Write a sequence for this structure.
């Protein structure tokens, strides 16, 4: 259980490295969701 929790926390920290996600410039929820999705895709495709 700890291993999975650590993995989730590291992923969230990587998402927060994206400035738009960390500062939450987007005021509307659907725009923020898109920003998080885009940041997640960028992490997933990162070599």
């Amino acid at each position: 259980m700890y291993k999975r929790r650590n993995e989730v926390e590291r992923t969230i920290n990587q998402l927060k490295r994206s400035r738009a996600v960390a500062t939450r410039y987007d005021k509307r929820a659907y725009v923020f969701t898109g920003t998080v999705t885009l940041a997640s895709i960028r992490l997933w495709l990162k070599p």
Observations:
- Residues 26 and 32 are 5 Å apart (CA to CA).
- DSSP finds three helices and no strands in the chain.
- The radius of gyration is 12 Å.
- The helical segments are 2-16, 19-23, 29-45.
